[in-house]
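Open question from group meeting: does this chain pack into something compact, or does most of it stay loose? Before anyone orders reagents, we agreed to write out a predicted structure and look at it together. Recording both the input and the output here so the notebook holds the full record.
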Amino acid sequence: MAVRNPFFGIWFSKLSRTHSCSISGILDMAEEKPPRILRIIARLNVGGPARHVILLTEKFREKGWASELAVGEVDSAEGSMEDLAVARGIEPVKFEKLGRDIHLFDDLPVIWKLYRLMRRFRPDIVHTHTAKAGAVGRAAAFLYRRGHWRGLWEPKSLRVYHTFHGHVLRGYFSGLKNSLFRRIEWALAHASTALITLSASLREELSELGVARPEKVVVIPLGIELEPFLDMAEGVPGTNPVRGELALSVDTPLVGIVGRLVPIKDHLLFFEAASRLVKEGAGTRSGAAHFLIVGDGEMRPELESRAGSLGIRERCHFIGWRSDLPDIYESLDLVALTSRNEGTPLCIIEGMAAARAIVAINVGGVGDLTGFSREAASSPPERGFRIGPVGAIIQPQDPAGFARAMAHLLDDPDALIRLGREGRDRVRRRYSIDRLVEDLESLYLKNR
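Structure tokens returned:
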């Protein structure tokens, strides 16, 4: 660390000679000051990223860091995790226009307000999460570093990180918008100390999209509080409150899908596959399956109508957002995912921790998470699906393959137990919150 003030240098030189004091000693004392980290996310809507930032804000406080969280407002149609933040003793700083929608004239004042927050809080680290917060947060961080009279040649010391929990560069917008957003992300990557992805597959995808070179991207897998799920029985128990609520016996196969009811999650494919399963599996165990839809969102009326038109409405149980997730997963035989785009889906980690087999579309980090090699995950499957260590993966846009995968698994209860056990062992080793905090702390301190 260079001493730039000549008067300080003269004073310090005399102090060193008089009191046998070294510059390293002074700097060591200065470094004992707890690091200050500002975490920014667009909103605390129900989902993995919101839980992720709440837990990280709490855990770094427990380590003695000055750890704060800035958020936008949750849309009225979405479930909120703000209660979880309050329960963990976190009062986020709220910004009215920091939501997911992008509007230039609304976003400029948000950048200015985040800059002013940084001026007050004086962070050593700014870490952004999700696309909108990543854009305005990193723009504000750039302004904070450079926005003073010596900023061009002597910027403030600040490390800036952004986590891609997924991305909106494919599957969300038109081709022109996708191209524009890729250029914006490329520019923001140059203003970042490092980018973080939750899987190696997502890092490769960002490189292919031209967002950043692979060496700029660090892979740090997701971590959650696994304990509520690890003590559950490996199979569906004789009694379960959720099955009791639905009036389903322990022998009735139950497939669950957990997530927001929005287009990117592609529940329409799930219902198409469920319809095929019921019709083609008549007389088999899988043909008697019911389907549990956990979550809410803008598509709920359309999805309920679609289930009716497919003739499976009485088999589909829409229960909205729930806080009793361990009981939810315990009630299931199989956990499903049909998203068009994902980073590392939290519901798959939770399902694996609960010792439940997985059936999922192979997108984003799903192959890494479920233990498939990249070659196996990307090669065309013979039956429309591929069985791996913890369940089945299916190529996108293939409801017939998804139906066959569900039938294959549900008709083999012993395989469900075996795959669930392997999934639990896998997440216990790789996806704990303590491991996540250690990995992030190591990254933050390495770049000091």
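Observations to bring back to the group:
DSSP finds 19 helices and 14 strands in the chain.
Confidence is low (pLDDT under 50) at residues 1-30.
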